[in-house]
Design brief:
By secondary structure, the protein is an alpha/beta fold. It has a single domain, classed as Rossmann fold (3-Layer(aba) Sandwich). The protein contains seven helices and eight strands.
Length: 177
């Protein structure tokens, strides 16, 4: 349960808007559970100082978090190491099916693993995102099909809500600033 003095920062970097939607959903669900939350695009907030907890979300492109998130983490790694942090990403990986897809689905890309190792989040969770078909090159469509991927809005809102409940259960008010 949060106290009046505790504040949680939810930051996101989104390329098509679906990560922003998830960040706003996470913030709304945390507020509904009594957590004081500020939600912003990662480029709107220069640092994480003054917050008792941080939730950081990003779309995944080329097996990495978006550059704005990487920059934020590198610029704020000292503060993030001593603050409870949760990281989520949205991409195609968690939605993959079939024999090849099952091998790839749960793998954490090396660049994401390195950033997580740098700040030591309480949890990193990859969620399926929105996979648009429009203007996808033929080779990308073939690779997606071979890996058991599909197009559309693949976000699993109940899973995102369940993940958010774990964040809300953290004793935010007990965190030292």
């Amino acid at each position: 349960m949060a106290t009046d003095a505790s504040r949680t920062l939810v930051l996101y970097a989104s390329s098509g808007g679906s990560t922003k939607d998830v960040a706003e959903f996470v913030a709304a669900r945390l507020r509904a559970r009594g957590v004081a939350v500020d939600v912003h695009g990662v480029e709107e907030v220069p640092d994480a100082h003054g917050y008792d907890a941080v939730v950081l979300g990003s779309a995944v492109h080329d097996e990495a978090l978006l550059p704005a998130v990487e920059h934020f983490v590198l610029s704020n790694c000292d503060a993030l190491r001593v603050t409870p942090v949760w990281v989520f990403s949205l991409g195609v990986g968690p939605s993959l099916r079939g024999p090849v897809g099952h091998l790839l689905r749960d793998a954490v890309p090396p660049r994401i693993a390195e950033l997580c190792e740098l700040i030591g989040p309480r949890d990193y969770h990859a969620f399926a995102g929105v996979v648009p078909r429009a203007n996808a090159p033929l080779i990308a469509r073939l690779v997606l099909r071979l890996c058991g991927g599909r197009y559309g809005d693949l976000r699993d809102w109940p899973a995102i809500d369940a993940w958010t409940s774990h964040i809300a259960a953290y004793p935010h008010g007990a965190v030292a600033a």
